[in-house]
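$ run holo --ligand "magnesium ion" --emit tokens
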Amino acid sequence: MAARTESLGRAHPAARAKREPSAPAADLERELRVYRHMVLLRLLDERMLTLQRQGRVGFYGSCYGQEAATLGSAAVLDAGDWIFPALREGGAMLLRGYPLVSYLCQIFGNSGDPTKGRQMPSHQAAASVHQVSWSSVIGTQLPQAVGAAHAARLRGEPTVVMAYLGDGATSSADFHHALTFAARLKAPVVFCCQNNQWSISLPVSRQTAAPELALKGAAYGVPSKRVDGNDLAAVLEAAGEAVAAARAGEGPRFLELLTYRLGAHSSSDDPTRYRDQKEVDRWLARDPLQLERLRLVEAGVWDEEREGALRGEQAEVIARAVAEAEAFPPPSPETLFEDLYADPPWIVSEQREALRAELAEAPRKKPGA
Amino acid sequence: MPTMNLIQAVNDALRLRMREDPRVVVLGEDVGKFGGVFRATAGLVEEFGEERVIDTPLAEGGIVGAAIGMAMNGLRPVPEIQFSDFIYPAFDQIVNELAKLRYRSGGQYSAPLVIRTPSGGGIKGGHYHSQSPEAYFVHTPGLKVVMPSNPLDAKGLLLSAMRGEDPVIFFEPKRLYRAARGEVPEGEVEIPLGVAARAWPEAEAPALATVISWGAMVPEAVEAAQALAGEGVAVEVIDLRTLWPLDLDTVLASVKRTGRAVVVHEAPRSCGFGAEVVALVQERAFSWLAAPVQRVTGLDTPFPYTLELEYLPLAPRIARAVRAVVAYQP
Ligand SMILES: Cc1ncc(C[n+]2csc(CCOP(=O)(O)OP(=O)(O)O)c2C)c(N)n1
Ligand SMILES: [Mg+2]
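-- output --
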């Protein structure tokens, strides 16, 4: 039986109480490490949304409510593994050692951004941590992830590729392409579907008539599982198994991480137009940070004091990094013409010279820059 | 007469058509309860119900493919593609299917539908919320392509598009969605496809150059013309409104009067629709030309995030080109 789905083991809060009380110390240590990054990401998202409202950041798509799903799944990867992200997985780069200042420069779109201020915020990429550049076009990264995974195998590397997607993306044609190819090629790829239950204004119940997204993975012959995405330990366990299987040559895995988008779709969105606050409140009670904090406190490795100290420390780290990042000037106009071709045709230098002459004569007025 | 912005004008046209013709259906991502991410379909699901205002799954090929089937079987679908940057997953359905359906069935089947989609940059949308892909569609025989530059035209052209028998790609310049405001009559507005308009000056007057543009670059061309007027350089600005079929008569008549032409568009230069306009002008008005026809366009690069004002062919770039054309000595 290659394809199967396992339904949610730990989704219900009551299920938590039954969790074995004494997790091994190594597990707790890893959870603690991820928890610290969950808090960092939460504070960072809050700060960025504030800066967006102040007009200092152009756009922002936050991970609010999905920190356990995002960071728990990324935490099981080896340093050489690749991530093909969607909108909300930028924070995985920080977990994997990417510098916060560079990360923020991308959000400001300035000259400190290694991707040269070309993309909207929340479109981070860094080869140093093997996190690939996402476009914005939903689903396109998925078949690419399969190809990268197949390449790793052909090259004899032990790399696993983790491909992220939302519930909405499971409707895209590229989702079909990716699952079909992954299963057929037995590629070492793990699809992490963050079912945050909304695709902008469309609830997942109206996105698809499939009762579980994990069924979709199974339909292509990819072993698939639905997991409580707000339960860090459950995510770590399921992602760990999936990655180990992919690495062992058993082929692709599909995880449906059931979670909830606690915030707006993005800074451009107003969810009060289409969803009931009562639903949000129900999920606020299952805030992954709160759940994990309780678990760590119960395990005796965390308390109020440590929480307060961590938050204070991280707020300061963020403030310092924001100040440093925001001081970078915008990218120079010449950068518009870089990286377009390995071997640039004549038109590139011609247009670069024309723009230089034009801007010398008529510099652009920058509203607020 | 009510004052509307461009979104309200689109909304008004959709509502009018849906009221008068039960065959008209709207479908797309977030078009129902949310009323569209730009609010262009606001209030429609409340008035016409979920059968006629369909919140679709996230799949553009599905949206257009399903719309084609609906149109073949008697409906008048108006699919929305949330951003024209996301029209490419539907490219196959549009280029291979929609555009060729009547032709390949020997006239037995057709798909009269209008794909509405916001296009263009200047809203800090980076590569994937800023593109101007009109040339791909003009290049595809069988499609009509429209891009209004103001609320009145948006309403009139959308009504004409929805009443026609041919598939239309209707680009809405999102930079103008809220920025462009104007008086728009309630009820009927008749603006046929394939007829350009003079955007500047108000009354016909002798001019030294013709600027030809469409969409969000029309107000930029007018701004350039106003600045140039202060320097004693009179310019006529033509707003094509419909790219295909092109109103070549209006373009040629103006160019023959002024002897000089500058084509302005936001899309990258090479193989943009401007290239077609230039070719037609030089083929048919060569003897009237006092200077080579120029293009003022976006750069041949992806649309940037931070440097979008450097990318866009705004009024200063247009004015420079007009000055150069007027000063041209063979
Ligand atoms: C091909 C394509 N169509 C439409 C959009 C507009 N859009 C951006 S995000 C989004 C919803 C995505 O939902 P989901 O996959 O569940 O991810 P989430 O935002 O919930 O993380 C849509 C429709 C897009 N970016 N790409
Ligand atoms: Mg979602």
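-- notes --
The pocket of thiamine diphosphate (ligand 1) is lined by residues A 87-88, 136-138, 166-169, 196, 198-200, 261, 265; B 29, 58, 60, 82, 86, 89 (CB under 6 Å).
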